[in-house]
Amino acid sequence: MTLTNKNIRSEKEGQIGLVRLNRPQVLNALSCELMDELVAAIEEFDRDDEVRVIILTGNEKAFAAGADIKEMSGEGTVSIMLKDRFATWDRIRNVKKPIVAAVSGYALGGGCELAMSCDIIIASESAQFGQPEINIGVIPGAGGTQRLTRVVGKHKAMEMILTGRPITAREAHELGLVNKVVPVEIYLEAAREVAREIAKKSPLAVRLAKEAVLKAFDGSLTEGLVFERKNFYMLFSSEDQKEGMRAFLEKRPASFTGR
């Protein structure tokens, strides 16, 4: 089943929900309308019990080349604050299922921030990542200064953000920004492979593992350890934990139901 909105296409491939940005004429620039449609599609897959993993992608030329500057150019401090355009982005952070970004071509500005909002990033050899906002007199506003710094470190983040220069997929991989770099022809299939592997696991364990990793990313070590332990204990009241351990002892594949 494929659903086409004005700016995105979404389809369900078994246990995978695939969302494609679809504004090729402007390199998938992230307008407010696109972001509304994107988040609605992701949240719908998050609610769908048949879907276990979500893939977010663009096309070979561009994942997303940035925000829609035409939309923002006339804004003032009060008007842009009242519109609260980043509230939509905050909803991505609350998605419980893992999101795999399949990135090819440009992932710049908001596009880089959108990729970093995902949980795993598979990049094609043509991918470029960067935060060029400094070139138009602003700074990243959808988490770029925070997420990029946590991943690549202070000095590299400073260089990328203060110069606006992008990095290649290979550089991004060396810095730990992406998980894997593959040829352009197979980048989406490589993302599907990762998604299918995750989809085989217990949905409850995947959800709580994602929560615990994000807690480590956002808070202190002490807070993260307490949170991890709580989620670990909670899983021992699940059917999936019983099935997983029983299957291991019986030397057979586990059949997880998400209960």
Question: How would you describe this structure to a colleague?
Answer:
By secondary structure, this protein is an alpha/beta fold. The protein folds into 2 domains: 2-199, Alpha-Beta Complex (2-enoyl-CoA Hydratase, Chain A, domain 1); 203-249, Orthogonal Bundle (Lyase 2-enoyl-coa Hydratase, Chain  A, domain 2), CATH 1.10.12.10. It is 47% helix and 17% strand. The chain has a 7-stranded mixed β-sheet with strand order 1-2-3-4-6-8-11, with helices on both faces. Strands 5-7-9-10 form a 4-stranded mixed β-sheet. The longest helix has 16 residues, at 32-47. The relative contact order is 0.11.
Short description:
This protein is α/β, with parallel strands linked by helices.
The CATH topology annotation of the largest domain reads as: 2-enoyl-CoA Hydratase, Chain A, domain 1
The CA-CA distance between the termini, in Å, is: 26 Å
Question: In order across it, which strands form the biggest sheet?
Answer: 1-2-3-4-6-8-11
CATH class of the largest domain: Alpha Beta
**C-alpha Rg (nearest Å):** 19 Å
Fraction of helical residues: 40-55%
Instruction: Provide the CATH architecture of the largest domain.
Output: Alpha-Beta Complex
- Look at the structure and name the CATH superfamily of the largest domain: 2-enoyl-CoA Hydratase, Chain A, domain 1
Number of domains: 2
Question: What average pLDDT do the residues reach?
Answer: 92
